[in-house]
Amino acid sequence: MSYKSASAHVQYNGLTSDNFSISQGVGQGRVLSSWLFSLYINDLILQLISTNCGIRIRIGYLNIPAILLADDTTLLSASPKGLQGLLDCVQTYACKWRLKYNGTKSCVLAFNNNTDVDIKLGNTKIACKTDTIYAGTLITNNNKTFERTKNAAKKLKKNLHSLYSAGVNPKGLTPITNTLIWKRFVLPTALYSCEVWGQLSKF
């Protein structure tokens, strides 16, 4: 199906609506969707860079105002004023190109423990928190790794018990099979993004 002829219908409670055309957006899971969205959002990145409000890294004097993962946007700034400048840029871009950001689902994570900052996205004040989850990884403003390790252990136990509930009995399996199950189904869940845990503690 091409984007020119895209259509959809709604099914609810056993009823089906008439077909209606889709004139904007990209289809979830389609091959071209990620590329089309990248083209759509690229101008925002350029505009954020032009504000000079991002974090400056002393490697060729890089200015990094944002990290984007699909449609998740993380803004980086060394000061509340700089962060507000980035948010104003995002709001202007969103209004121009009919992109909606939900300020109530956003948060400010201040690494200097200053939780009394007044940051807004449009007219919505963004809450200041001590931790947040980004791309499945817990990030805290105190640079401690204990909570990440604790959460990983919980995931490991949950995954292991879900296998037991599904009827997997380790006593009835060979050591090789048990090891394969452990390595392929249990450990990956617990160790997701563990490569950056040590780096996050030094952030």
TrEMBL record:
PROSITE patterns: RT_POL (PS50878). It holds the Pfam family RVT_1. This is Reverse transcriptase domain-containing protein. It comes from Mytilus galloprovincialis. It comes from the Eukaryota. Residues 1-139 form the Reverse transcriptase domain.
